[in-house]
């Protein structure tokens, strides 16, 4: 069995734009399986075939495909001519000494020109397998389902299917800038937008040298996990400690958290526009912390003209934690660290700040200079799905 047949679901609904989405998915699969002796990735009728070379190991390719957005399911497949005897013989050859208490054959005709209908093919192929193996046929609860897909010039058959991650191919929905704190929520928010086809720039605010480098190390690990889903990531590390110090000297204590967040949004906006991102993404959840009341969210959002996407806004903490565990970021996120949220944070932050009060407080700060210097001074680190060791610091305007 030297092929993998990939099926997509949501892409099939894209009408005239479908070929573009399929092309994007094919390219993403090629990149994700590089170095694994994959000889070809080619679109067929409603599916994609991955042709494996002699050195390819299905298990390794499968592990990569689990993280390619746009894939609904996939299976290790064999190929046979469009002939009942040849299909049955090829299936029996690959089954070898496999044993099962029951089986069934399920046939799909991608090309309806084949003279026999699906139920007829199922009976003919299934009958030959039953005769050779002596297995029981169970159409409702079979232990083994053999799927046969009739194409225009050949047939594919699979014995099992793996679920893919679903969603849309990475890069199909544009670019976003994701604010990544190092906590539980923001990596899940970034992942959810990647699943919807967005490429995510990651923006992290740290307070080194006022605090340790621990938060930076955490977000590097989070960036590595997220990169396995989007193949290439740029992480922007923004020094925020000096900005916080200036805010403490100027802004009344209750308003500082909201002012911090508005400055983060402005800096992320600057980075996003410089690097072609069309929206910001946050891990905000209504009512979770003081800065995430409706009033404060509204005031913070007013600091930018870019859309702010909040994919977790209506979820509860248990749901987010469960998703972070599935994603593989939870164990990283819960490692104790000192992030910028812990520096110069007032004991009683305002939960219902007004825009007038916040803008009045900000009027005493050199906002444009602070934003421009922070964005321009951010370090960029690159992460590659295939190497993971590739980290090339440079300036944000480089």
Structural account:
With 398 residues, the chain is of the alpha/beta class. It folds into two domains: 161 residues, VC0802-like (2-Layer Sandwich); 221 residues, Rossmann fold. It is 38% helix and 20% strand. The protein has 13 helices and 16 strands. The strands form two sheets. Strands 1, 2, 3, 4, 5, 6, 7, 8 and 9 form a nine-stranded mixed beta sheet that branches. Strands 14-13-10-11-12-15-16 form a seven-stranded mixed beta sheet, sandwiched between helices. Helix 3 crosses helix 4 and helix 5 runs parallel beside helix 6. The longest helix is centred in the middle third of the chain and has 19 residues. It is elongated, with a radius of gyration of 26 Å. The chain starts with a strand and ends with a strand. The C terminus is likely disordered.
What's this, in brief?
The chain is an alpha/beta fold and 398 residues long. 38% of the residues lie in helices and 20% in strands.
Features:
single chain, 398 residues, VC0802-like, 20% strand, 2 domains, elongated, 16 strands, 9-stranded mixed β-sheet, 7-stranded mixed β-sheet, disordered C terminus
């Amino acid at each position: 069995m030297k092929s993998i047949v990939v099926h997509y679901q949501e892409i099939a609904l894209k009408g005239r734009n479908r070929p573009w989405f399929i092309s994007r998915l094919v390219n993403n699969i090629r990149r994700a399986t590089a170095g694994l002796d994959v000889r070809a990735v080619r679109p067929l009728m409603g599916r994609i075939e991955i042709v494996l070379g002699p050195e390819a190991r299905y298990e390794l390719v499968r592990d990569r495909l689990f993280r390619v957005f746009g894939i609904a399911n996939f299976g290790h497949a064999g190929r046979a001519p469009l002939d009942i005897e040849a299909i049955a013989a090829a299936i029996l050859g690959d089954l070898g000494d496999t044993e099962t208490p029951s089986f069934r054959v399920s046939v799909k005709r991608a090309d309806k020109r084949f003279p026999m209908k699906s139920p007829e093919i199922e009976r003919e192929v299934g009958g030959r397998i039953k005769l050779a193996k002596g297995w029981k046929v169970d159409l409702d609860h079979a232990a083994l389902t053999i799927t046969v897909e009739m194409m225009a010039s050949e047939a594919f058959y699979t014995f099992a299917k793996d679920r893919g991650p679903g969603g849309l191919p990475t890069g199909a929905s544009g670019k976003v800038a994701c604010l990544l704190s190092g906590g539980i929520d923001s990596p899940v928010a970034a992942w959810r937008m990647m699943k919807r086809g967005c490429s995510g720039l990651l923006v992290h605010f740290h307070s080194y040298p006022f605090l340790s480098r621990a938060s930076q190390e955490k977000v590097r690990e989070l960036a590595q996990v997220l990169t396995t889903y989007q193949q290439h990531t740029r992480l922007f590390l923004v020094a925020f400690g000096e900005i916080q110090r200036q805010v403490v000297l100027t802004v009344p204590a209750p308003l500082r958290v909201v002012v911090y967040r508005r400055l983060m949004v402005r800096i992320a906006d600057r980075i996003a526009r410089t690097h072609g991102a069309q929206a910001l993404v946050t891990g905000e959840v209504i009512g979770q912390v003081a800065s995430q009341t409706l009033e404060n969210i509204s005031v913070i959002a007013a600091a930018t003209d870019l859309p702010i996407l909040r994919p977790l806004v209506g979820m509860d903490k248990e749901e987010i934690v469960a998703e972070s565990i599935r994603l593989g970021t939870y164990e990283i996120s819960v490692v104790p660290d000192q992030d910028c949220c812990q520096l110069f944070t007032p004991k009683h932050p305002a939960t219902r700040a007004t825009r007038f009060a916040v803008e009045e407080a900000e009027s005493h700060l050199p906002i444009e200079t602070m934003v421009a210097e922070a964005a321009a001074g951010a370090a960029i680190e690159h992460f590659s799905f295939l190497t993971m060791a590739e980290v090339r610091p440079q300036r944000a305007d480089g």
